Amino acid sequence: MGYFQFMNHLFNFMLPAAFMGVVFPLLCRTIWPKQKVSRTLKSQMLITSLTGVGILFGGLFIFSTDGKMMTYFTLVLSAALYQWWWRGAWRGK
Question: CB atoms < 10 A from the CB of 59, how many?
């Protein structure tokens, strides 16, 4: 496998995490526009994306293969939990 093929595989491997990291904060701000958030939009996107990449690599390590539904479920769950936490929903507001 050459350099460009490796970079293409790596990019496509991390693309779901980057997509979730960008879409989830934007979607949550669209659905609940008046709720205060404890972080800026850029930091939410960055933290969610980096966590998602870590989850994808963890799933690759644990399952020894890419594309397991449990890994993608954990990716979506972590993005949702971050938004829930940053919006202060755990306080019952």
Answer: 21
How far apart are alpha carbons 27 and 19 in whole angstroms? Answer: 12
Specify the higher pLDDT residue, 58 or 32. Answer: 58
pTM given for the model: 0.86
CB-count burial class (<10 Å; 0-12, 13-18, 19+) for 77: exposed
CA torsion sign, 34 to 35 to 37 to 42? negative
Q: Which residue has the tokens 């479920």?
A: 73
* pLDDT tens, residue by residue, 6-57: 999 999 999 999 999 999 999 988 988 888 888 899 999 999 999 999 999 9
DSSP state of 89: G
Between CA 19 and CA 61 the distance in angstroms is: 21
